[in-house]
Each structure stands twice: as structure tokens, then as C-alpha cells.
Amino acid sequence: MRVLKNIFKGFFIGVANAIPGVSGGTIAFLLGIYEQFIDALSNITDTKSNKFKERFIFLFQIGVGILLGLFISFKIFSYFFEENGEVLRFFFMGLIIFSIPSIFKTKLKKIDKKDIWFMLLGLGIMWVIGLQSENLNSQPDLNNLSYVFKLFIISLISAGAMILPGLSGSFLLLVFGEYENISNYVTNFNFFAIFIVGFGVISGILILSKVMDKLFKRYREETISTVLGIIIGSTIKLVPSPITGENIIFDVLFFMVGGFIVLKLSKIKN
């Protein structure tokens, strides 16, 4: 049963990572597995540890779910997001907003001025990222070495963002002008491009996971407060602009469905 739960949670993380503006790290945080995920990633090379087998199995199960979520999402959500993006954004807004109170309650012992300052820092980080929200044009050419290197670097940076709650790797891909290109590479099984992107993704995740692991161990409450600020900031960025109002009933409905799912998922965190 735990195997299926981990695959299911990984699937949600993968789906979130495929949607611009939605953070897979946030979903992992909301599902209560973020710190375990970061710990397993940052220590996966420690083969002498008595927790190596446990960490490897956990990452394998989560990884299977993530890959399934990414592949299915790139096949389906790219079309759905274009045609019904407003409704989909309200769904994830509900998912995140309904989760914030429980994070405050379970992750922070108390809230003081220091926590508020670090939350504001997180909001500031999202504001800076928001300044870069204009898509950049990209001319894909896999025969061009400079483009291949650019693709690797962009994948590395975006993958690092994927494991940070509140930051969307797919959003950064949009910022760099590579979201559509990478989506096409995956759905069309361009193995060379997938290898370059995959190498960048793995490198980014391994590097940033070690940083986050150290922060959580040394400055846990400060890190959580900053992450909460980033999560709140990312929710603000999810608000469609402008809101058309054409599907307001569905917007509200999917917002409530997102909240309902959070309440149900909170019961299977452990």
C-alpha cells in the first residue's frame, strides 16, 4: 500500500512540474514528503549508510510516479492548459491555498517577527522571478553545440527550481523560451534531446537538494518560513490575468475540488 501511495504522490509532483506556474516542490511539501525527498536525494550517493536501501526504494517509487505524471501531462495538459488554462489555474490555487493553514499549524511551532521577515523574503524571491515572466524566443537547433549547451544549462536551472516549493520549473522553461520545445522533444521521443535535458535535470536536482538539505538541518524554521512566503507568492502568480469570467462557475468549482483533494490527501500523508 505504501508503494502505491508513494507512486501516487510522485505522480502528482510530476503533473505539477509539467504545468507552468505550478511547483512540484510545493506539492511535495503539501503531501508531507518534501524533507524526506530532499534527504534521500542529497544522500543517495552515501552507499555505506544503513538508510541507503530505504532511500533508494523511496526515490525509485517517487521517481516512477514523477515520470508517469510528466509524460501523461505533456501529452494532455499542454492542450488542456491552452484551451482551459483559467480553470486549471483555479484548481491548483485551491490545492495550495487550502494547504497553507495546515502547514502553519504543523511545520512552525509559533510565528514571530523573524518568521514574518523570512516569509517576506520568500515573497520577494517570487516578485523577482515574476519580473522575468516574459517569454524569450528560442531557435531550437540540436545540431548547434551552443544550443545544446544552452538546453543543458536551462534544464539544470529549471530542475533545481522544480524541487523548491513555490518555484515552477516549467515556468522557468517558459521564461527561457524552451517549454514548448522540450514538451515536443518528450512527446516525439527525441532521445538525444531527452538525454541532454535529463542530464541537466539530474544535475540540477542533485546540486540543489544538497543545499536544501543543509538549510533544513541548520536553519529549519527560517527555511520553512521562506518557503511559505514563496508558496504564497506563487499562488498570487497563478491568478489568471485577466480573469475572463466566462467560466466563473467552473473556476469556483475546480477551486473547491482542489481544496477537497488537499483535505483528503492530508489524511494519507503518513
In short:
With 270 residues, this protein is mostly helical.
Describe this structure in words.
With 270 residues, the protein is mainly α. The chain has one domain (2-268). Helices cover 75% and strands 0% of the residues. It is built from twelve helices and no strands. The chain has helices at residues 2-17, 24-30, 34-42, 52-97, 100-107, 113-130, 145-162, 169-175, 179-187, 191-218, 220-238, 248-265. α4 (52-97) packs antiparallel against α12 (248-265) and α6 (113-130) crosses α11 (220-238). It is globular.
Q: Which range does the strand content fall in? A: under 5%
Q: In which range does the helix fraction lie? A: over 70%
Please state the CA-atom Rg, rounded to the nearest Å: 18 Å
Assembly annotation: single chain
What sequence of helices (H) and strands (E) makes up the elements? HHHHHHHHHHHH
* Total beta strand runs: 0
Question: Class by helix and strand content?
Answer: mainly alpha
- Tally of alpha and pi helices: 12
Main sheet record: none
Q: Unreliable segments (pLDDT under 50, ≥5 consecutive)?
A: 133-138
What number is the mean pLDDT?
75
**Form type:** globular
The end-to-end distance, rounded to whole angstroms, is 12 Å
How many domain regions?
1
